[in-house]
Design a protein that fits this description.
Blueprint (H helix, E strand, L loop, with lengths): L3 H12 L4 H16 L5 H17 L2 H11 L24 E3 L13 H15 L1 H6 L7 E5 L6 H12 L3 E5 L10 H15 L3 E5 L15 H16 L5 E6 L7 H6 L2 E4 L5 H12 L4 H13 L5 H16 L8 H9 L8 H7 L2 H9 L8 H8 L3 H19 L1
Parallel strand pairs: 2-5, 2-6, 3-4, 4-5
Antiparallel strand pairs: 1-3
Helix pairs in contact: 1-3, 2-3, 8-9, 11-12, 11-13, 12-14, 12-17, 13-14, 16-18, 17-18
Protein name: AAA family ATPase
Organism: Cryobacterium melibiosiphilum
InterPro entries: AAA+_ATPase (IPR003593), AAA_ATPase_domain (IPR050168), ATPase_AAA_core (IPR003959), P-loop_NTPase (IPR027417)
Length: 401
């Protein structure tokens, strides 16, 4: 089909209106293309599927409660909306991610964090019922933790689950050296978000929300903190705010009080690291699962992002090995030492000694290896693993005597 790119754009914008008649015509177009055996039919069908999924993710009572139960002046945000810009630099103050373009997957998190999120989503998706009972849902959430733990991805996933656009603003990008400009940028950002049904995501939150009594901060920053607090208060009842920070210790106590939900995202534990590694390697067979376990073991102290990077390096090394026979532990040992400053040097040392590594992995309580898995990652037979473990037991017995 000629000019399919333009047709797709027209269909995408039209479907965003939510008009059933428009959707019917788009379905007719897809059916006609399919009948003509036109490969572009699948592109139109994907657009129809995406808008259908986003509609299902946002129950009608949720949208109604945001638009009528709280802020009656809010509008539905459509693609092409003009984003506010910095008056001096003309740089946009935010990026908008619409549900149909939001590809954020739920990050691997500890069970306790997952339970908290489930409760939060339950409130948001039953907004109207709470209002009818005279209760307000928790619309402000501060997500904090080390870099690379999935905070931004989680915020986008939450917006996707609500079926709402995410207005993502990096607060460090709103700061200006010109007197009064930062406060004006904040005002413009919140005025924009308050006009529409959306989730406001404030990334790098500590860039502005610092301690007002910090002697190292100038008076302008203290005034900006006050402006931020006032804007958060003014948005109450208008929509969701999600703040993200790597440096929670820098936040003003008054900022903490503005967020009803305060969610810590810790570094991934052994189970989470194993799940991350399995996903990154697309592990399905015995060998790749064993390699995922070794990657999870050596990456203690890594963030999820660092572990994904390590797994990507490992996959690339496998592809480029050209059939070279090398035990997985040798490659992983080399890559781990150059991937993160958080690499446990003791574990890298253990990786360099096969006998020590066999004993350490076989007796590890967090990530359990079978003898066959150990044989694969060490590049030896299961008989060799058994012999090494027997030698270890005999050596320990002799030492005890």
């Amino acid at each position: 089909m000629e000019q399919i790119a333009i047709v797709k754009s027209l269909v995408r914008v039209a479907l965003a209106q939510g008009d059933d008649a428009v959707r019917h015509q788009a379905e007719r177009l897809a059916a006609a293309l399919r009948k003509a055996d036109d490969k572009d039919a699948s592109a139109i069908e994907r657009l129809l599927s995406a808008t259908s999924q986003s509609k299902n993710l946002a129950p009608s009572h949720l949208t109604k409660s945001f638009s009528t139960g709280f802020a009656t002046a809010t509008e539905r945000m459509l693609p092409g909306v003009a984003v506010p810009v910095d008056r001096e630099s003309s740089a946009p103050l935010a990026t908008i991610v619409f549900p149909e373009n939001n590809l954020a997957a739920f990050p691997v998190l500890a069970p306790g964090v997952t339970d908290t999120l489930a409760g939060l989503l339950l409130e948001w998706k039953n907004h109207g019922r709470l209002i009818e009972a005279g209760l307000n849902p928790s619309l402000t959430c501060l997500i904090y933790g080390p870099p690379g733990t999935g905070k931004t991805t989680l915020a986008l996933w939450l917006a996707h689950e609500l079926g709402l656009p995410a207005v993502v603003a990096r607060l460090d990008g709103l700061i200006s050296s010109l007197l009064g400009t930062t406060a004006r940028n904040l005002g413009a950002l919140f005025a924009f978000a308050n006009r529409y049904e959306c989730v406001l995501v404030l990334d790098e939150f500590d860039a502005i929300a610092k301690l007002r009594d910090d002697p190292n901060e100038v008076g302008e920053i203290k005034r900006v903190v006050n402006t931020l607090l006032q804007n958060i208060d003014a948005r109450e009842g208008r929509g969701v705010i999600i703040g993200l920070t790597n440096h929670q210790a820098l936040l003003d106590p008054a900022v903490w009080r503005r967020f009803e939900v305060q969610l810590a995202i810790p570094l991934p534990g052994p189970d989470e690291r194993f799940d991350i590694a399995k996903g990154a390697l697309s592990a399905k067979n015995h060998e790749s699962i064993a390699e995922s376990k070794l990657l999870a073991w050596v990456s203690e102290g890594f963030s999820g992002s660092e572990l994904v990077t390590l797994c990507a390096k490992y996959r690339k090394r496998l592809i480029l090995s050209d059939g070279e026979s090398r035990a997985p532990f040798e490659t992983i040992s080399q890559l781990a030492a150059s991937t993160s400053v958080h690499t446990d040097r003791r574990r890298v040392f253990d990786l360099a000694n096969e006998n020590t590594l066999t004993r350490v992995l076989a007796t590890n309580q967090d990530i359990r290896f079978s003898y066959s898995e150990l044989a694969h990652v060490l590049g030896v037979s299961t008989k060799t693993i058994s012999r090494r473990m027997s030698d270890t037991v005999e050596g320990d017995t002799a030492d005890a005597e």
